[in-house]
Amino acid sequence: MSDKQPTPEQIEKVWEWCGWEWHPAIELWKSPAPESCLGYGTLPLINLDNLFQWAVPKLITCELRVITGMWHAHVSVGAKHTYGDNEDPALALFWAILEVIENE
Fold first, then answer.
1. Residue 3 has what pLDDT?
2. Disulfide check for 30: which of 21, 26, 58, 100 has CB 3.0–4.6 Å away?
3. Which candidate, 75, 95, 97, 99, places its Cα nearest to that of 85?
């Protein structure tokens, strides 16, 4: 069982990979979607809605399964395949995505 939580640096790394940009002059994050009503603000929360909106479209494969009460995520980008496990499906997916990013 994993109750490990991502650090702010890990969260920033994933959202930057998804296209969010930090603007130090105004100390806000810019959404990667120009037509988005989000514009500038804080980074999205780590949840399935946000991960499927911003991160999953960048993946080649994305699978989430429950095996003996634990969520398992399998993701790939190109030839890189990684896995993430957690009791929370969003965190399982987050850990798998972060692993892909760190191994690019």
1. 65
2. 21
3. 95
